[in-house]
Amino acid sequence: MSLIPSASKSWFPGHMATFLRNQLPTLLSAQVDVVLEVRDVRMPLTSIHPDLEGILSQWRERRKTGRVCERIVVYTKRDLVDTEGQEALGKALSKHFDHHTHFNSNSKPKDLKALHGML
Q1: Strands across the sheet with 100-103, in order?
Q2: What do you get for the CA distance between the two ends of the chain, in Å?
Q3: Contact status, residue 72 vs residue 99, Cβ threshold 8 Å
Q4: What are residue 7's phi and psi, to 5 degrees?
Q5: Three-class SS of residue 20?
Q6: If DSSP codes are grouped into helix, strand and coil, which group holds residue 47?
Q7: Minimal CA–CA distance to 59: which of 37, 88, 80, 29?
C-alpha cells in the first residue's frame, strides 16, 4: 500500500507543472547535494506530490556516486501540533520514507537555527 496519494491535476496550476517538468530536473543536477521540501504539518500526507517523489527518486539514483544526497522535509506550523503528535508523525514517516524530518515554526528562531545546523 502506497502512502503517496494520487494527485488530482485539476487544482494543479500550470506554472507548477512546468516547474516540475522542465526546471526541477535541471536544478537537481550534479551541483545539488541537499533538497529542502516544505510541507504543512497539518496535512503531512496530502501535501506529498507523487511527481516530485518520482523526480527525487531519480535524482538519488543518478547520484549513487558517494556524494551527499540528502532530502530534508520541513514541516511548517509546528506550533499548531502538540509535541507528542510531532514525535509520532516523525516516527511514522521514517518507517515509510527515506528523508530527514524537521518541524519548524516561524515564530521560534531556534527552529531555524536547528534547521541551519542540519545543513
Answers
A1: 34-40, 70-76, 100-103
A2: 32
A3: yes
A4: -95, 130
A5: helix
A6: coil
A7: 29
Phi, psi at 34, each rounded to 5°: -135, 135
Decide if 28 contacts 70 (C-beta within 8 A).
no
Residue 37 pLDDT greater than 60, yes or no: yes
CB contact at 8 A, 74 and 39: yes
Rg (CA), the chain: 15
- Residue 107 C-alpha cell reads as 515564530
d(CA 80, CA 28): 32
Residue 6 pLDDT level (bands cut at 50, 70, 90): low
Q: What residues have CB less than 8 Å from 34, skipping those under 6 apart?
A: 68, 70, 71, 72, 119
What tens digit of pLDDT does each residue of 47-88 get? Answer: 787 777 787 887 777 776 666 678 888 888 888 878 888 888
| CA–CA dist 93, 5 (Å, integer) | 14
